[in-house]
Amino acid sequence: MSDLQAIFEAVRSLLAPYAPPLTPKRDEPGYYDLWSVKDVVIEGRKRREVYFAGLIIQGGYVGFYFMPVYADVEIKAVFAPELLKLLKGKSCFHVKALTPELLAQIEAALKSGYALYQQRGWV
After folding, report:
1. How many CA atoms, within 13 angstroms, populate the side-chain half-sphere of residue 42?
2. Hey, how many other C-beta atoms are within 10 angstroms of the C-beta on 37?
3. Average pLDDT per run of 10 along the chain, which is 123 residues long?
4. CATH number, domain at 27?
């Protein structure tokens, strides 16, 4: 699958089971994100919300933003090699084509990230 809108919708469907308890701030064509809206303290700072994941259609790819990597860098160990190849920077994956295997890898990463947020009391 290489149509950006189709990729966006497929990955968005993987985020759907997390809302609720997570809440989208923006839910529009080409942009979707999920936040934990809960008062928490992270590294001594009070926060009213924590970003979990998001999607945005860019020029030639779908950006998949996965924020649990900022909570625990060791979570990168759950990324399969195919998914890791798409990582640009610390938390953004540039998805240009989607295979069933890659979709399963994104789903597994989301499950691990959500479990981490639950463990930290952020959800």
Report:
1. 18
2. 14
3. 87 94 92 89 82 93 91 78 86 92 92 91 85
4. 3.90.1150
Q: What angle, rounded to 10 degrees, do the helices at 100-120 and 4-15 form?
A: 40
Q: What stretch of H or E contains 100?
A: helix 100-120
Dist CA 49 CA 41 (whole Å): 10
> Residue 110 and residue 28: Cα distance in Å, rounded?
21
Q: Could you tell me if residue 38 is inside a domain?
A: yes
Distance CA(2)–CA(96), nearest Å, equals 6
Asked whether the bond before 68 is cis by omega within 30 degrees of 0, the reply is no
| Domain extent for 78 | 4-117
* Contact (Cβ atoms closer than 8 angstroms) between residue 121 and residue 90: no
Residue 63 CA, chain-centre distance (Å), reads 10
Residue 122 included in any domain: no
**What does DSSP say about strands 87-88 and 92-95: parallel, antiparallel, or unpaired?**
antiparallel
Number of residues written out for the chain = 123
